[in-house]
C-alpha cells in the first residue's frame, strides 16, 4: 500500500519578510536586555570584590588585636602588614571617590595611600587612628573596584566608603552606626545615597 502526503505550497518554511521581521524583533530585545545582563554581571563582580576587601580589613584587625593591644591611637598603617595586597601606591594616581563626588588621589589620605589588590581594586586609606574606643569610633577606607577614575560623580564605578569600627564591625556609609566618628568627622546618621548602586551586604 502506498501512502502519499500532500503538501500545500507556502507551508514549507518562512518567507524572507517573516525572517526579517523575526530578526528585527530579536535585535530590539537584545538591545534592551544585553546591557542589563552585562551591568548585572559587573555589579556582582564589584560587590564580590568589595566584600573580599572588607573581609580582608576585618581579618587584619582581628589578627592585629590578637597580637597587640588595640587602642584609640591604633592606625590603619598598623594593620597593613596583616593584609594581602600587591603594593602600596602613594602617588597622585586617581581613583573614584564615593557617590556624589568626583575623584580622589592615592596620596590624598593624610599620610596614607592606596593598597593595590590582586583583584584589580584599590583601597584608599588615611593614616588616622580610631580616635577613641567607643563602638562608634572608626577608621575609614574607600574601595574602588576597578582602581581607576571613571570620570563621573555618580554611577556604577564609584567607590564604596567602608568603616572599620573599634569593636571590629564593618559597615558602609549607608549602613553606618549613628554618630560614627572617623578621621575627625562625625556622621550623624547613615546615608544610603553615598553607597554605589552595585553594593549591598546581601
Q: Keywords for this structure?
A:
202 residues, Glycoprotein, Type 4 Pilin, eight-stranded mixed sheet, two-stranded antiparallel sheet, 1 helix, 26% helix
Task: Describe what you observe in this structure.
The protein has one helix spanning 16-67, and strands at 87-89, 94-96, 103-105, 113-116, 122-125, 137-144, 160-165, 170-172, 180-182, 185-187. It is of the alpha+beta class and 202 residues long. The protein has a single domain (16-194), classed as Glycoprotein, Type 4 Pilin. The strands form 2 sheets. Strands 1, 4, 5, 6, 7, 8, 9 and 10 form an 8-stranded mixed β-sheet that branches. Strands 2-3 form a two-stranded antiparallel sheet. It is elongated, with a radius of gyration of 25 Å.
